[in-house]
């Protein structure tokens, strides 16, 4: 069993203003935030599905763009959007719907207060590769055909050795907080760091 490593990092949390014009052009607003804060990858949840994305040359390329003919991802639009995470190894912007409006917050590593944290690699759906386009890999999983297309370049060989193998991973960072009264330590805040395949576990650099 792998022992969880608790480390220390400087972390800054701040609110981000969401302009009223956001709903008219979701992608443009997200690209501006990505450029301002050095964010590279998007994971969005909408009423009608999951949308992956990648910031590339000043534009947002989504899994819908990569697979427009597939029933993989819905269109990115404010009407059906629930929340969006834009992230990179250095920071994450979380945007979510609240009380009929929008709120956003930014977490930046390497600045602010010192806190303890640990990382975990969550296993994502995907036991077989169906197609690779624009740097996105369309994967399916099981008889229920769970399908999504993260911005990771995999190949058939990543799945070939075991039909139940799920090589996709999502690195999640959990920041810890100690209750001043009880002394109990809990996860106070979490963010996404990167999406990759299992071969990258252990190769990530300390922040």
Features:
207 residues; mainly beta; 2 domains; ten-stranded antiparallel β-sheet
**How many domains comprise the coordinates?**
2
Strand order of the largest sheet: 4-3-2-5-6-7-1-8-12-13
> What is the approximate shape?
globular
Total strands: the figure is: 13
Low-confidence stretches: none
Strand residues, percent: over 45%
* Tally of DSSP helical segments: 2
Rounded to an integer in angstroms, the radius of gyration calculated over CA atoms is: 18 Å
Q: Oligomeric status of the shown chains? A: single chain
Question: SSE order, as H and E?
Answer: EHEEEHEEEEEEEEE
What structural category arises from helix and sheet content?
Answer: mainly beta
Which sheet architecture does the biggest sheet show? 10 strands, antiparallel
Mean pLDDT level: 91
Q: Which range best describes the helical content: under 10%, 10-25%, 25-40%, 40-55%, 55-70% or over 70%?
A: under 10%
Q: What is the terminal separation in angstroms? A: 24 Å
């Amino acid at each position: 069993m792998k022992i969880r490593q608790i480390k220390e990092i400087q972390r800054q949390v701040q609110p981000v203003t969401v302009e009223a014009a956001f709903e008219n052009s979701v992608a443009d607003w997200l690209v501006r935030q990505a450029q301002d804060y050095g964010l590279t990858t998007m994971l969005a949840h909408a009423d009608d599905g999951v949308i992956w994305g990648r910031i590339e040359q000043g534009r947002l390329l989504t899994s819908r763009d990569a697979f427009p003919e597939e029933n993989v991802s819905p269109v990115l639009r404010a009407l059906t959007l629930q929340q969006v995470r834009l992230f990179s190894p250095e920071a994450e912007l979380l945007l979510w719907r609240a009380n009929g409006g929008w709120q956003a917050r930014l977490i930046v590593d390497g600045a602010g207060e010192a806190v303890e944290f640990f990382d975990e690699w969550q296993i994502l759906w995907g036991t077989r590769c169906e197609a690779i386009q624009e740097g996105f890999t369309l994967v399916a999983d099981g008889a229920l055909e769970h399908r999504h297309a993260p911005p990771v370049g995999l190949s058939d060989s990543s799945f070939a050795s075991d039909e139940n193998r799920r090589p996709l991973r999502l690195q999640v960072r959990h920041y810890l907080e100690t209750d001043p009264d009880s002394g109990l330590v809990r996860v106070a805040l979490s963010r996404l760091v990167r999406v990759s395949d299992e071969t990258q576990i252990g190769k990530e650099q300390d922040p």
